[in-house]
């Protein structure tokens, strides 16, 4: 929820005052960054030192106010090649020291200018380390950013923050997904067709599949089983996305139908949580979540440790110490976070289906997990054979 005015200030010394108010009453004062106005969302922090453009345009950040732990943000400006969707999705943006002048050969404009152009309310000049420590100790919570020359009193701001909707129970996937199907053609020779259910998909994800000879039919979050199979898919993909997976009853029912048919299936992030629910596991809200491009995950099927890109505030509640019986055969936890033992991947042992909780498309982030797209291709090859 955002209301903003574009303003004309381009220099940091001209910025209007701004206040960040957490729902537990803690207040940080700084300067307006981006558009001036008011915005509300869930306060979360991202530990990535690079990739701010991909973060801002990731639909999974819908209704979240992102705090950047890296102190310097905006150094390389904004280009027209790196966005992961057609707009900025974050509800608000919090940085410590924004770049005064961007410097990169691909830069077309400053980050401050882009935030103002899209009406994204932000704040700078605050102690983001203290704010991050607070969120780690107290957990992600509702927040408001207020900026401009006529700010409400603290009591009014806190009341408005506490009236904002919470992330738990939020059904958001349909708000960020495409409303019309579209096709991403295979690069080179077409080998497979995949139906991708868009729950908040990032642009690089179908591109990674296209690189492997896959023609990707991206379908709305409201797509039915009949819509999925109308494209005659060799495999079905469920994307990342925002919100509480406990609300995603429709995608869960579609996935169960795919599992019944035995079509090769791959899910990432929200898609991992959907698979967890489809198999009969529960989901829960993490205290402050995983967000950034430096999270260590172990692939338990190989023992290999990967550095991976994450953006999730919910997780699957599945046992780490045993194989589970599900309506679709045996399932096990395939990947686990080495920081806190959170489930980061699932796989079925008797059907061609698997998922991970992170971003193997590496936009932004490391490429350690790119092999997962090859694993999906192998499932489709095996099914065809």
End-to-end distance: 50 Å
C-alpha geometry:
globular
Ranges where pLDDT stays below 50 over 5 or more residues in a row are 7-13
Helix content: 10-25%
Largest sheet: 11 strands, mixed
Can you give the mean pLDDT?
Answer: 95
Distinct helical segment count = 10
Task: Return Rg in Å.
Answer: 21 Å
DSSP, total strands: 21
Strand content: 25-35%
The helix-and-strand class reads alpha/beta
Structure characterization notes:
- The protein is of the alpha/beta class and 385 residues long.
- 22% of the residues lie in helices and 33% in strands.
- It has helices at 52-56, 111-117, 128-138, 154-163, 173-176, 204-210, 225-230, 249-261, 270-278, 371-384; strands spanning 2-5, 17-22, 27-34, 36-46, 64-68, 72-73, 92-94, 97-98, 121-124, 141-147, 182-184, 192-197, 214-219, 235-238, 265-268, 282-299, 305-317, 324-326, 329-337, 343-348, 353-356.
- The strands form 3 sheets. Strands 11, 12, 13, 14, 15, 16, 17, 18, 19, 20 and 21 form an 11-stranded mixed beta sheet that branches. Strands 2-3-9-7-5-4-10 form a 7-stranded mixed barrel.
Properties at a glance:
globular, single chain, 10 helices, eleven-stranded mixed sheet, alpha/beta, seven-stranded mixed beta barrel, 385 residues
């Amino acid at each position: 929820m955002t209301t903003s005015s574009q303003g004309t200030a381009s220099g940091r010394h001209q910025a209007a005052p701004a206040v960040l108010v957490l729902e537990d009453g803690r207040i940080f004062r700084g300067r307006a960054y981006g558009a001036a106005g008011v915005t509300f969302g869930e306060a979360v922090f991202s530990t990535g030192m690079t990739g701010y453009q991909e973060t801002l345009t990731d639909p999974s950040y819908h209704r979240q106010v992102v705090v950047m732990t890296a102190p310097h943000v905006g150094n390389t400006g904004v280009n027209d090649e790196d966005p992961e969707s057609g707009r900025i999705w974050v509800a608000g943006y919090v940085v410590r020291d924004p770049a005064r002048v961007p410097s990169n050969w691909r830069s077309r404009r400053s980050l401050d200018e882009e935030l103002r152009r899209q009406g994204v309310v932000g704040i700078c000049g605050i102690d983001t380390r203290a704010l991050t420590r607070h969120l780690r100790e107290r957990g992600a919570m509702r927040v408001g950013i207020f900026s401009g020359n006529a700010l409400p009193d603290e009591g009014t701001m806190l009341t408005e923050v506490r009236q904002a909707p919470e992330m738990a129970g939020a059904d958001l996937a349909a708000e960020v997904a495409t409303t019309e199907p579209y096709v991403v053609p295979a690069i080179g020779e077409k080998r497979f067709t995949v139906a991708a259910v868009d729950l908040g998909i990032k642009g690089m994800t179908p591109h990674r599949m296209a690189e492997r000879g896959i023609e990707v039919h991206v379908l709305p979050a409201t797509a039915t089983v009949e819509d999925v199979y109308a494209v005659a898919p060799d495999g079905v993909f469920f994307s990342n996305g925002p919100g509480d997976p406990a609300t995603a009853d429709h995608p869960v029912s579609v996935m169960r139908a795919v599992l019944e048919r035995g079509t090769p299936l791959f899910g990432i992030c929200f898609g991992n949580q959907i698979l967890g629910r489809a198999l009969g596991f529960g989901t829960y809200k993490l205290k402050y979540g995983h967000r950034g491009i430096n999270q260590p995950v172990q692939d338990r099927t190989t023992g290999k440790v990967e550095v991976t890109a994450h953006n999730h505030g919910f997780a699957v509640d599945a046992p780490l110490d045993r194989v589970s019986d599900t309506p679709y055969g045996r399932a096990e936890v395939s990947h686990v976070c080495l920081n806190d033992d959170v489930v980061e991947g699932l796989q079925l042992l008797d059907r061609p289906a698997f998922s991970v909780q992170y971003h193997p498309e590496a936009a932004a982030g490391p490429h350690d997990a790119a092999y997962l797209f090859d694993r999906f291709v192998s499932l489709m090859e095996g099914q065809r054979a």
